[in-house]
Design goal:
By secondary structure, the protein is of the alpha/beta class. The strands form 3 sheets. Strands 1, 2, 3, 4 and 8 form a 5-stranded parallel beta sheet that branches. A 3-stranded mixed beta sheet has the order 5-7-9. It has a two-stranded parallel ribbon with strand order 6-10. Helix 5 links the parallel strand 3 and strand 4. Helix 2 runs parallel beside helix 4. It binds 1,4-dihydronicotinamide adenine dinucleotide and 2-amino-3-ketobutyric acid. 1,4-dihydronicotinamide adenine dinucleotide binds next to helix 4 and strand 5.
Length: 288
């Protein structure tokens, strides 16, 4: 979800490639750079995880264990994102509260429940300052979708501006929680800065918008009336989406540390189209 603009991490500070499976190298990086907060984003997302379960297990679970050990050894504040994918068909779906049955059916979801529980365990047993937000599908103009079930909600904007046609792999009425990248970043920073005494939970849902493909298409057509959308549900991703919450209950995040989203659906669509339009223009790509 990192941005490739002029103020990106690569341009603004020290930047190194690191493999989360290489424990020794990670430990050296943390110690040699005096790092005190660790934000652990590396993961394989839901759809791509199902096509390579072994690799997903290694990155999402072994990688997480490396990060947890290093954070504990070095008394770091640790953030690990979780997801709507940490819920499954037996969870309440509309809305899903913070605390309820979690029996996800993807390796991605299983690894994220594992992360939530391991982090909370180490917090209660050893005082690790573990913090975790369950993100909805995140929508950004700056990166291409990374193999998730919510990817269509990013791809549709690229297609709308390039070919004017999007083939959607979900049914038109599949409702999922979503969020603009700015809200996601701001939530993460605000949550990381929140005083410990305000946090009654270590893992919070955060919500912003919840929409179906049909609804986002209608909103995009207010700007691009010619957008053509066809539906060809992909059984794997449809099955995953049908097992995830339709809406998130984020009342605890709002109460404990003041979470409040800024982007509704109209604002998100306007911003995505404007950002992508500028990026296409600067890359000399046409707009449909
Ligand atoms: N994008 C979304 O809609 C949501 C994302 N999240 C979470 O946010 C985090 C980031 O997600 P995205 O940026 O969308 O995913 P992404 O798939 O775009 O990026 C994942 C990153 O992990 C890196 N990675 C893979 N193997 C690695 C390894 N062995 N060592 C180091 N890095 C490795 C990849 O190079 C990639 O940059 C993930 O933990 C994901 O679960 C949670 C909910 C929603
Ligand atoms: C919601 C997520 O965690 C991710 N975008 C995915 O679809 O796998």
């Amino acid at each position: 979800m990192s941005s490739l603009c002029s103020h990106c991490v690569r341009c603004s500070g020290p930047y190194v490639y690191a493999d989360v499976l290489d424990y020794k190298n990670l430990r050296e990086l943390v110690v040699n750079n005096g790092i005190t907060w660790l934000v652990h984003y590396s993961a394989m997302l839901s759809a791509v995880g199902e096509s390579n379960v072994q690799l997903s297990r290694a990155i999402n679970i072994t990688g997480l264990h490396n990060v947890l050990d290093i954070a504990l050894e070095n008394s770091m504040r640790l953030f690990v994102p979780s997801t709507i994918g940490a819920f499954g068909p037996s969870s309440p779906r509309d809305p899903a509260p913070d605390l309820c049955i979690q029996r996800p059916r993807t390796i991605y979801g299983v690894s994220k429940v594992h992360a939530e529980l391991m982090g909370e365990y180490l917090h209660h047993k050893y005082g690790l300052d573990f913090r975790c937000l369950r993100y909805p599908g995140v929508i950004s103009a700056y990166t291409h979708p990374g193999g998730g079930t919510t990817d269509y909600a990013v791809q549709i904007f690229h297609d709308a501006l390039s070919t004017g046609h999007h083939e959607c792999y979900l049914h038109p009425q599949t409702r999922l929680p979503m969020m603009h990248i700015s809200d996601c970043h701001r939530a993460t920073v605000e949550f990381m800065q929140a005083p410990e005494c305000q946090l009654y939970l270590r893992t919070y849902n955060i919500a912003a918008i919840s929409f179906t493909p049909e609804e986002v298409v209608e909103e995009i057509r207010k700007h691009l009336p010619h957008l053509r959308v066809t539906y060809k549900p992909d059984p794997i991703r449809q099955n995953i989406a049908d097992s995830w919450p339709m809406r998130f209950d984020d009342s605890n995040a709002r109460r404990d540390w003041g979470w409040e989203p800024a982007f509704g659906l109209p604002e998100l669509v306007t911003d995505m189209l404007s950002d992508l339009h500028k990026r296409r223009a600067s890359a000399d790509l046409g707009v449909s």
